[in-house]
Amino acid sequence: MQGDQIKEEHLFQLIKAGDHTAFALLFHQYKEVLFRHAYQILRDLDETEDVVQELFAEIWEKRAQLPELAYVSSYLYRATRNKVLNKLNRGKVIDKYLDHVIQNNPPFHEQTESWILEKELRTIIEQEIAHLPERMRHIFQLSRQEGLSHKEIAALLNISEGTSKLQVSNALKILKSKLLQAIVVLIAG
């Protein structure tokens, strides 16, 4: 089936059936406009790329649950906006926590306790990195510990830049979630 023959109202039906051509058409037709839509709010290229990639990855992964729509574009705009708002809200939670830590910075004699807490958090982060799936861990380490760009990682591992970005993004999500859980436990304990 030719991409230009697919009508918008049938895209999700075809994608639900696992049609890669329909998904590729959806991606190429909407990626730039959704990128611009998200960038207007986020004003950060990497964050915006993450939002758009996450959206399309989620569409493919959850294709069986896609609704039947006459206007796919409306759905995509709404989904993009929701992802942007979720990203902003997560950032606000982390910012509030950092503000709390800064405002409640312990006096010098309590610095030892802070140092111990920081050391425990570093250990937890190292353990969680070790628990990442092997490929994700390797790409994450190349990016964050070796300082390689997504382009360099893609060339080194013979993968696409998008795959590199998605693996690092997924690793960061996992690590942030685990780190927040650890922080809550350490602070409460």
Provide a concise account of the structure shown.
By secondary structure, this protein is an all-alpha fold. The chain has helices at residues 8-16, 20-42, 45-61, 72-103, 111-131, 134-145, 150-157, 161-188. The chain folds into 2 domains: 1-105, RNA polymerase sigma factor, region 2, helix turn helix motif (Rna Polymerase Sigma Factor, Chain: A, Orthogonal Bundle), CATH 1.10.1740.10; 110-189, Orthogonal Bundle (Arc Repressor Mutant, subunit A).
CATH superfamily of the largest domain: RNA polymerase sigma factor, region 2, helix turn helix motif
Proportion of beta-strand residues:
under 5%
Taking the sheet with the most strands, its summary is: none
Distance between the termini: 60 Å
Overall geometry comes to: globular
Oligomer: single chain
List the domain count as a whole number: 2
Derived from helix and strand composition plus strand pairing, the structural class reads: mainly alpha
Assign the CATH class of the largest domain.
Answer: Mainly Alpha
CATH architecture of the largest domain: Orthogonal Bundle
CATH topology of the largest domain: Rna Polymerase Sigma Factor, Chain: A
Work out the number of β strands: 0
**CA radius of gyration:** 20 Å
